[in-house]
Amino acid sequence: MTVYAQALHAALFGLPTHDESLPAALDALLQATHTATTPEQKTAVLRQVAKQLRNAAEIIQRYQYQARRDRFPANVAEQLADAHGQAQQIAQALGCVAPAFSHRPAPDTTPSAQVAHDRSATAPVVSPPSPATRHL
What confidence tens digit (pLDDT) does each residue in 12-54 have? Predict the structure, then answer.
């Protein structure tokens, strides 16, 4: 029964079923972010975005090589090289953080975190003296 309900939910809200892959187009992935409800779906969306960014980085790199080969102004190839590096960094970062959406972190209950929280909750607010009350 659960499998049927999950399949129906996925069909109604446009979510991929276990047999389907996530949409490849970024606009479809954007739509999936609005309909992804489970932590696993959210992680899958981020992983797919990272994959698409790696593909985009490869496309950018090919155009960078073409710009050099076709003797475009140097700044064109340099800007494409920068964009390539940035796309790779973003893809890597998304790949690293995606699993966090599958596992919700527990609140930090270490003693030092608790003391810091307690201090911030009870610390008095001290404002600086006004210029009229300062004595030289």
Answer: 655 555 545 656 678 888 888 888 888 888 888 889 999 999 9
pTM over 0.70: no
| C-alpha 101 chain-centroid distance | 10
pLDDT in tens, 66-116: 999 999 999 999 999 999 999 999 999 999 999 988 876 666 655 555 555
CA 42, chain centre distance (Å)? 10
CA distance 95 to 89: 10
Buried b (16+ CB within 10 A) or exposed e, 5-29: eeeeebeeeebbeeeeebbeeeeeb
Q: Cβ-count burial of 127 within 10 angstroms (0-12 exposed, 13-18 middle, 19+ buried)?
A: exposed
Q: How far apart are the first and last CA of the chain?
A: 80
Instruction: Report residue 92 as tokens.
Output: 């890597």
List the beta strands (DSSP E) in the chain: none
Helices and strands: H and E segment counts in the chain = 5, 0
Q: Compute how many other C-beta atoms are within 10 angstroms of the C-beta atom of residue 134.
A: 8
